Amino acid sequence: MATEAGAATRRRAGRQRDHSRDAVILEATLAVLAEHGYDRMTIDLVAARAGMARATVYRRWPTKAELVLDAVGRLSSTDVGEIDAAQLPDTGTLREDMIAMIRPFDDEQQQIRIQAVIGLLVLARTDDRLAQAALGAGIGPWIDINRALMQRAVDRGEFAPPADLETLAELIPMMCVSRAVQQLPITYEFSVALIDGVIIPALRGTT
Amino acid sequence: MATEAGAATRRRAGRQRDHSRDAVILEATLAVLAEHGYDRMTIDLVAARAGMARATVYRRWPTKAELVLDAVGRLSSTDVGEIDAAQLPDTGTLREDMIAMIRPFDDEQQQIRIQAVIGLLVLARTDDRLAQAALGAGIGPWIDINRALMQRAVDRGEFAPPADLETLAELIPMMCVSRAVQQLPITYEFSVALIDGVIIPALRGTT
Amino acid sequence: MATEAGAATRRRAGRQRDHSRDAVILEATLAVLAEHGYDRMTIDLVAARAGMARATVYRRWPTKAELVLDAVGRLSSTDVGEIDAAQLPDTGTLREDMIAMIRPFDDEQQQIRIQAVIGLLVLARTDDRLAQAALGAGIGPWIDINRALMQRAVDRGEFAPPADLETLAELIPMMCVSRAVQQLPITYEFSVALIDGVIIPALRGTT
Amino acid sequence: MATEAGAATRRRAGRQRDHSRDAVILEATLAVLAEHGYDRMTIDLVAARAGMARATVYRRWPTKAELVLDAVGRLSSTDVGEIDAAQLPDTGTLREDMIAMIRPFDDEQQQIRIQAVIGLLVLARTDDRLAQAALGAGIGPWIDINRALMQRAVDRGEFAPPADLETLAELIPMMCVSRAVQQLPITYEFSVALIDGVIIPALRGTT
DNA sequence: CGATAAACGAGACGGTACGTCGCGTCTTCTG
DNA sequence: CAGAAGACGCGACGTACCGTCTCGTTTATCG
């Protein structure tokens, strides 16, 4: 019956939490994070920017760390999430595939993301769970895509299976982190240079 | 005047600062850093572990960040500092040179160093000066050595000059950071695999 | 229009407020008040004890203070309210009249009432209106009765009119408050002693 | 030996707590208390008025309640403390003794004291220890003096020993509390009326 | 050798952010 | 509409750490 079916799915009683506010808070979090850095970011600042009370933030995330974690995670899924699985670019060669994937990461938001990751890394020891999550949230999807593209290239015989494909998948993102830390811009050219100068030779060199 | 005479050389009156304590503090700093992570590291904790008063720490380093920076820096110069310039290993091939350099970094202290770097990165936005310094203190010498070894290999004609030697010099350290963040061990094998699977192919591939 | 017809008398549309719940809430209020004291009494606690939602309480009383005020007021009128005016005990002598009036106050609930008054007094500064009301609700009727009994005794010539009858009327209740604050029991004997040892001599002494 | 004698009494190491600040804070506490009442009094407000940081207040008193308690206690000892024991007025008659004692209480500060007591009473249930302390701090000395004066009058045969001297000692203070709650002024005349109209008759009436 | 000036230990102090809790209001759903 | 459940804005609470300051004690150097 419809009533029973609804009963199972029935929303909890009481005023519904306005989940549209989640996004506003996360957005504010990223903004403040980008502007002040992790340790100068304040829940008060975030709440003020989101135009709501501090308690409203705390009702959703128990600590500053979890909030930032989610904010960065959301950031990733926003522009990457939909590019999953089958609909990856398929140009026939790994080089073209990877270059096709650079665009969405070659922008200003990329900087924010990496800054956020860096901000979270400080908590690695504080909360073990956060260590991986920070990486995962910030550059996880990026790594995932690289891994998928390379695996496909291997599968179709473009390259022999490398000893450590995982490390190669992490290579570009990590080198971008390196540049971010040094306040250097992350350019299209830099990424292409990595593909042509490191990734492809490494895969070819395994032969 | 008598007072001016020898003013340059004469030590200031009063009790002399005991510089042997500097090392004790830095050691304590690294220990606490490794144990609790940057944000849970407290000056109080460090002072207690070093067996002295908080003020004694602050007399030497103005802020927590500078303290950690120095601690990590000291860590680097301890086992790397003296290996500068001419006395680098010279086996004739880049591969053997680099492998010879792995040892001093292939230990538990390496983990501490990287954790410290990570801890400091959070301050990149707070204090621009610290951003580079953090990297420099933690993995700077490591990068320097790699750069030197590669440059020498290029100079003696072992490889053609790569487009971006700097990035290649940073490659191993950064990939080690990546593993550290993921709580994975940094093994000898991992480093060798990077040399054989990525660095050498990349240099050869440029040809 | 039909809608307008009888608008004055017609009850408002929709579900009617269940006024039997008022009493339940007030009862719960007194219970929590007695158990935890005013400042640890929570509207949540009261609502939970009454078995209803917080909003249901707030629909009836705008603030915590008003709620307690009413609860204490209700308490008074419950056992005193109907004893008004003409039906006061009339034994012929003030002493016997007052002793006859002691009973209804000589119980455990009396303690609750006084505790509640005490709890409310803290709000005297916050809300001037509440200052008097708190006293009135808690011990007002008690004072009223004493005043009436004494006035009658004066009227029938038992005593000469005292300089400050009002103060004498407040005397017993206030001394009971004093004992309550000191966690001492308010006994029958104590009240009789006040009548014989203070009230009567004071009235006689005026002569 | 002087050194050892000093060792026992030696002040704790470290910067000495500036106890002159205690008084400033207590003063500020009383001022804010008188101005806003207990529940609207804020530690922040007190600290601001005292011209120091919130932490400085919390270093001395763990909670708001303890702070107010001490503030009121200090108030009592300030103007009453020194009037102890032997140096009570001794005019030969209880009436004159008590009237001589009215002065120090017949002022504006008396109002503050009573307001503070009232403010604290709300915590009686929260912290049993505070219940008595509140009374003691606010009007304890006042009661003590009354008790002493009456006892002396009894001792010299001015009156026969009353059944409950304690209650008589509390009588004037409690009736003043009553007036304070009702926002009535506590005048010299009121106190004298109590002495002549209630206390003296009550003592005489016991005969 | 005694004066003196700085190091040192201990901890107070001014700040500032944290995360919690309660009030009284508002929203949403169910009866 | 009443009532339940609970989100929300507000603001105080008490805690923790930072970096500075104060003050009594210790120790090296200078006169």
How would you describe this structure in keywords?
homotetramer, mainly alpha, Arc Repressor Mutant, subunit A, Tetracycline Repressor, domain 2, 2 domains, 10 helices, 69% helix, elongated, disordered N terminus
How many runs of DSSP E, i.e. beta strands of chain A?
0
What name does the CATH topology of the largest domain in chain A carry?
Tetracycline Repressor, domain 2
Measured by DSSP, the beta-strand proportion of chain A falls in: under 5%
Overall outline of chain A: elongated
Mean pLDDT level of chain A: 81
Provide the number of structural domains of chain A.
2
CATH superfamily of the largest domain in chain A: Tetracycline Repressor, domain 2
Give unreliable regions of chain A as ranges: 1-9
Discrete helix count of chain A: 10
State the end-to-end distance of chain A.
63 Å
Largest sheet of chain A: none
Rg of chain A from C-alpha positions?
Answer: 20 Å
Order of helices and strands of chain A: HHHHHHHHHH
Assembly state here? homotetramer
Top CATH class of the largest domain in chain A:
Mainly Alpha
For the largest interface, the chains and their residue counts are: A-B, 44 and 45 residues
TL;DR?
Mean pLDDT of chain A is 81; it is low at 1-9. With 207 residues, chain A is mainly α. Chain A has helices at residues 2-9, 20-36, 43-50, 54-60, 64-79, 94-102, 108-121, 128-155, 165-181, 188-205.
How would you describe what is shown here?
- The structure is a homotetramer of 207-residue chains.
- Chain A has 207 residues and is mainly α.
- The first copy, chain A, folds into two domains: 16-68, Orthogonal Bundle (Arc Repressor Mutant, subunit A), CATH 1.10.10.60; 73-205, Tetracycline Repressor, domain 2.
- Helices cover 69% and strands 0% of the residues of chain A.
- Chain A has ten helices and no strands.
- Chain A has helices at 2-9, 20-36, 43-50, 54-60, 64-79, 94-102, 108-121, 128-155, 165-181, 188-205.
- In chain A, helix 2 packs across helix 3 and helix 9 packs antiparallel against helix 10 (188-205).
- The radius of gyration of chain A is 20 Å and the shape is elongated.
- Chains A and B meet through helix 7, helix 8, helix 9 and helix 10 of A and helix 6, helix 7, helix 8 and helix 9 of B.
- Chain A binds a DNA duplex (31 and 31 nucleotides) through helix 4.
